[in-house]
Amino acid sequence: MKKNITIAIILLIFSFSSYSQSITDIINEVSIDSLEFKIKEFTGEQSTIVNGNTVTIRNRQQANNDVAAAYLKQRFEGMDNISVAEQNFNSRGKNIIATQLGKTNPDDIYIVCAHYDTVADYCADDNASGTIAVLEIARILSTQCLDNTIIYALWDEEEGGPTNGLAGSRYYANQASNNGDNILGVLNIDMMGYDGNDDNKFDIDVQNIAGSVAMKNDILSVFNSYSFGNLDPITVNPGTPASDHSSFWNEGYSAVLVGESWETNDQTPFYHSSRDREATIDMPYYTELAKLVTAYMVTKGSLVSVDNTVSLSGNVLTANETAANYQWINCDTNSPISGATNQSYTPTSTGSYAVELTSGTCTEVSKCFEIDLLGVNTFSAGEINLYPNPVKTVLNIEMTASKDYTFNIYDTGGKLILKRESSVLNSTLNLKDLSKGVYFLNVETSEKSGTFKIIKE
Ligand SMILES: [Zn+2]
Q1: How high is the pLDDT of residue 87?
Q2: Backbone phi, then psi, for 114, in 5-degree steps?
């Protein structure tokens, strides 16, 4: 009886232990290069393309930020699992709201947000830093199915002006409250890229409103669970109401502000001026803070356990997820490949390939893999003879030239079953112990490669 229980437990563990991305894997996706590139684009340090036009987004003041809004909308539109909308709240104010619906609890909502309007040219720290961090988090989390809903909100008219500021977030929070939206936490990022004294301190601004203090504690718990360089948090309570999180406090929602340390007077000295440029941002500090916000959001979003990684062996691509429906995709044309619906796929031409996995209500797409069949010469007809095929026991491999050959046999799941090396013209592989089915034999020399389908009877 005891033994049977042990076996049952082992089976249970195996059936639930298929690898999927961990929170650490997600954190490690945050890229300093991706952040820096997008900050430069969004502050006009370099041009970018919006709706097919080459543009320079140097100024994002309220009367002049339609192109900035279009840039943000377009970036969200390129992401999986996300729907994006413009929310117009006055004659020129425009929030960009991107929603990633939870697969399990779509009504449980977490918001990560930042304002994208400015008071001057550039304004990299205030607040391209927050805006681009939100885009980077969306870039990463949109490749994953999440149990709960995440809303990526980019506010207009946070800065003073005709509306005295916080206009976009105030409108949104009021509507959400009227709708009864179940918003469980709002993480606002406003100015997160400056660390003039290199002490790595940052502020979490909170007040005793709704569950805001518990939310701050959750962020600190995430902070203590993973590694974020030398970051050093400071809790500020009562924290400043001078940014968009306070619009949610006013509606009784839990919210915090995360950013550089005003508490230690180490905020950017270029505040609200056109000297607030990308070169004054401390990119490693900024990246670590973006990682922390990512870690908090993915923890609250809660990863659905689907593994969208792919292994490459020779030219055989294999999805690492074992329990899903598969559709391989040509990334160059963004179209499904007819009939390519197995766990493994062997491209027949040079190109870029990914797999779309569907498990229940969750659909995830892997990264694209570049497969270059041009750089490797394939064996021409008659250079290799394989027989018999189908094969029962011994497979004969006849060559026309003496080389150092490597033979790898893969199953249709892309798993390496057998590896042999040979330098003679005529080799044999004993396949007696293989179970019946289809296999792929990859033959390689230093100059050539070829993959052949073998049927074991
Ligand atoms: Zn700001």
Answers
A1: 98
A2: -165, 155
Same domain for 133 and 101, yes or no, is yes
Kindly give the distance from the C-alpha atom of residue 198 to the centroid of ligand 1, in angstroms, as a whole number. 21
CA of 179 to the centre of ligand 1 (A): 27
User: How much of the chain exceeds pLDDT 70, in percent?
Assistant: 94
- pLDDT of res. 14: 36
Strands 325-330 and 335-336: antiparallel
- Taking alpha carbons only, the member of 446, 314, 454 closest to residue 386 is 454
Count of residues in the chain: 457
The whole-number pLDDT of residue 6 equals: 39
Note the pTM of the prediction, 2 decimals. 0.79
Distance 318 CA to ligand 1 centre (A): 45
Is residue 212 one of the residues assigned to a domain? Answer: yes
Residue 190 C-alpha to ligand 1 middle, in angstroms?
5
Q: Are 355 and 345 in contact (CB under 8 A)?
A: yes
Measured in Å, residue 416 CA sits from the centre of ligand 1 at: 54
Cα(387) to centroid of ligand 1, in Å? Answer: 71
Report the amino acid identity of residue 157. Answer: E
Task: State the burial class of residue 51 (Cβ atoms within 10 Å of its Cβ: 0-12, 13-18, 19+).
Answer: exposed
Give the CATH number of the domain where residue 292 resides: 3.40.630.10
User: Residue 417 C-alpha to ligand 1 middle, in angstroms?
Assistant: 58
CATH code of the domain containing 319: 2.60.40.10
Q: How far is the CA of 244 from the centre of ligand 1 (A)?
A: 9
Beta bridge partners of 450: 443
Residue type, 362: C
Q: Distances from the Cα of 341 to the Cαs of 105, 336, 337, in angstroms? A: 30, 9, 8
pLDDT band per the 50, 70, 90 thresholds, residue 374: low
What pLDDT, in 10s, does the model give residues 112-154?
999 999 999 999 999 999 999 999 999 999 999 999 999 999 9
Contact 249, 208 (CB under 8 A): no
Non-local (6+) Cβ contacts of 359 within 8 A are 306, 321, 323, 324, 325
Residue 397 Cα to ligand 1 midpoint, Å, equals 69
Note whether 110 and 203 are same-domain residues: yes
pLDDT: which is higher, 6 or 445: 445
Task: Please provide the average confidence, as pLDDT, over all residues in the chain.
Answer: 91
Task: Name the residues around ion ligand 1, CB cutoff 5 A.
Answer: 126-127, 190
